[in-house]
Amino acid sequence: MTLRQQMTHVEKLTRDLIEHVNSTLMTNITDLRELSRPIRKKSHYPTMIAMSNSLNKVTQSTAETTECLDYLQDQLQEIRDHAHRERLTWR
After folding, report:
1. Please, what's the largest Cα pairwise distance for the chain?
2. Alpha-carbon distance 91 to 77, whole Å?
3. C-alpha triplet 28, 30, 35: angle, nearest 5°
4. Among 8, 9, 19, 32, which residue's CB has the most CB atoms within a 10 Å radius?
5. Which range of residues forms the domain containing residue 83?
């Protein structure tokens, strides 16, 4: 891929990551927080299964976010290396 294509790809990955964090991760964290608060809106005494399921969702969402971040970091490193190679060829 050209440098411009790589940058466009990384821009799309960044938007996807932001969307994932805002829609999935924050929703799951909010649900877990609501279950663990002293004054609960949904149920005064949530079951351990509900707490466990909510915690599992947060863990899964965090793992997906970490995976996306690792891939994004790899792509950014490739862009950096590509730009460095381009700079050396112009000298």
Report:
1. 69
2. 22
3. 100
4. 32
5. 3-89
